[in-house]
Write the structure tokens for this entry.
Amino acid sequence: MSKRQRGANGASDPDGTDAELDERTGSEPADGGPDHVERTLMTIEMLADEPRTVEALAAELGVHRRTVARMLESMTRRGWVEANDANERTLRLTARVLNVSGKVLQQMDLVSIARPYVAELRDLIGETSHLAVASDGWAVHVLEEPSRHPLAVSSSIGSRVPLHATAVGKALAAYLPDALARAIEHGLLPLSDRTITDPKALVKHLEEVRSLGVAIDDGEVTPEMRCIAAPVFDFTGAVVASVGFSGPATRVGRAQLESHAELVRGTAARLSALLGKDEAVRKMSSSMHDDQRAAR
């Protein structure tokens, strides 16, 4: 008996009803071929969005429910799918997805992944763009794409900058309380007359950073410079880096901050999605819009 003649629960289908159903829907047999692989991947993506019933999946895939049921049986046996506790009629993905994605992410090099996005940000804005990570209460530059302007901001790879005054630093500190606490231990030194040096004032300022989704350094380190950065999330929802740009105030006017901030947010969101944290991006965006509406 062929696999094509087995029912949704693995029972035999001697009259070939399932095969006829596949033919009537115009789909390929559910037991092989690229269409089957594509349907499986689409099912994983749809269940990642929210639990669904067999009927809902079949409708979205454009195939008969028995085709979907057979596929889900295989996915359940392999530990990818289970019944949803809240509603047993719906199915959801299991933690196996996180296990596999975690193994993939462990093989990925953050700097290599981010390089084309940081370069694109540099090209969009025209200013030096960079990626930074938190280390012992500092922000450390791990990647830089220099501006092509003769007069441009530059920093050495591996150089440390303060969390409390720089855009890349504040974008990290807003989401990493341990790093912030360590920075406060180091001392919030005044680097210009705009530097925030009071811990309580800094904490309040970082609430605004989380609300906006970006951090801005408007002359807090050097009066003649402006910088914008945003957090980069990984698949666990943790902030693993910040991405942004720095430029002279003569080229980065205050009138441009909003449009530049949107470009930085977009770059950070795409990097976060690439690291597997679409949900974190959605939450950050939703929070930002909620706060903006409340402010009105």
